[in-house]
Amino acid sequence: MTKPVYKRVLLKLSGEALMGDDAYGINRATIERMVADVAEVAKLGVELAIVIGGGNIFRGVAPGAQGMDRATADYMGMLATVMNSLALADAMRQVGIIARVMSAISIEQVVEPYVRPKALQYLEEGKIVIFAAGTGNPFFTTDTAAALRGSEIGAQIVLKATKVDGVYSADPNKDPLATRYSTITFDEAISKHLQVMDATAFALCRDQKLPIKVFSIVKPGALKRVILGEDEGTLVHV
Ligand SMILES: Nc1ncnc2c1ncn2[C@@H]1O[C@H](COP(=O)(O)OP(=O)(O)O)[C@@H](O)[C@H]1O
Ligand SMILES: O=c1ccn([C@@H]2O[C@H](COP(=O)(O)OP(=O)(O)O)[C@@H](O)[C@H]2O)c(=O)[nH]1
Ligand 2 atom closest to Cα of 78? Predict the structure, then answer.
């Protein structure tokens, strides 16, 4: 079975995962491995849009941001996602993949602004679109940005590539007895307050009937297995 089960997907890449084993920042080997995974599925002809987080950079500045106004800190977080997006697009360029970064906040000398029809055009042309700066609003997360952009571009699924290999009954990093769901409904995930994604992202996807697949960004080949419809991670559905 080598045919993708999706035509267009929104891939959410963890910002925090980008730092690899470092304390913060972008780990070169990690970003190259992520790009190799993405290249493999792009070759299958899947239209890929990506939202990347910013936790890896924000960690490095967090001590200095203590006591800071929340909205200001969030704008810093959004700028961190712009840096990650640029790094990701450049790492893609180095392996011959054409990517376009579009930002939700306007910094036109650096990246082009998000314009939905333009994003759709890039996807149809087979380019990878990287959505930077989250939703452009403080008090949101890049998971919510993934839900929003995924809905806007008519993605068939949101793929959340994160540090854990699925949705668990409790945070597996804190509770060793937590068990993994192979599927779970949005209502269950929300009512059980499962923290793997924020409730805003879950609610938006539920309302748009946009399923989410949560899987490991660390496990080799996991993204490809998800794209091929193989048993991997946790499906969150209506
Ligand atoms: N019920 C749960 N199932 C899985 N992971 C959970 C759960 N509750 C909390 N988590 C935590 O959520 C984290 C993933 O979410 P998040 O911090 O938003 O990561 P990302 O960097 O991918 O955005 C996991 O590393 C895990 O520790
Ligand atoms: O629409 C958005 C998206 C992100 N952020 C900020 O950017 C940070 C980085 O994003 P996130 O934590 O989602 O990244 P990840 O967990 O994937 O590293 C967040 O903490 C927020 O401070 C925001 O304010 N609005």
Answer: 7
Closest CA to 56 of 90, 36, 31, 33: 31
As a whole number of angstroms, the distance between CA 145 and CA 153 comes to 12
Contact 65, 24 (CB under 8 A): no
Q: Give per-residue pLDDT as tens, 62-76.
A: 888 889 999 999 999
Q: What ipTM describes this predicted complex?
A: 0.94
Neighbours of 143 (CB within 10 A): 25
Output the CA 38–ligand 2 centroid distance in Å: 22
Tell the residue nearest (CA) to atom 17 of ligand 1: 196
Helix pair 70-94, 55-65: axis angle to 10 deg: 150
Q: Where are the alpha helices (DSSP H) in the chain?
A: 28-42, 55-65, 70-94, 116-124, 142-152, 186-191, 199-208, 222-227
Query: What's the CA-to-centroid distance between 148 and ligand 1, angstroms?
Result: 19
pLDDT digits (tens, 9 = 90+) for 106-155: 999 999 999 999 999 999 999 999 999 999 999 999 999 999 999 999 99
* Entry pTM: 0.96
Write down all domains in the chain, each with its CATH number in brackets. Answer: 8-237 (3.40.1160.10)
Non-local (6+) Cβ contacts of 92 within 8 A are: 35, 38, 39, 98, 99, 128
Pair 223, 161: CB distance under 8 Å: yes
